[in-house]
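Quick one:
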Amino acid sequence: MDDILDRVKRIVADELEVDVSEISDDSSISELGGDSLKALSIISALEAEFDITIPDEEISHINSIKTTVEAVERHLRG
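Output:
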């Protein structure tokens, strides 16, 4: 999980233009400066990085680093 967590944090940091050190497991995307458009950019980057597809209906439930990692792990397991 640490590898996934680190990769998710890096993607979020890149997309939101924040330092990865500012991101904790409990950080919310909105607290980090994200909005709905940035969230879609993050999802797109995650899908490319992990070669997964996150369904549209699941995107609204991804609102923190923790829920993002959980979604990635769920889709990696298939």
